[in-house]
Automatic annotation (TrEMBL):
One of its GO terms (molecular function) is lyase activity. It comes from the Bacteria. It comes from Escherichia coli. Keywords: Lyase. This is Chorismate lyase.
Amino acid sequence: MAHLFFSSCTIVAFLLRISSLNLLYISRKYFSAIQCLYVM
C-alpha cells in the first residue's frame, strides 16, 4: 500500500513538473508575441 502511494506521488510530481514547464514555455511565447505586436 505504501509503495503504491509513493509511486502515485512520484507520478503526480512528475506531471506537475511537466505542466509547470509547459506553462512557462507557453507564457514566454505569449509574452514574446505581445512584445512583437507592441514593437510593431
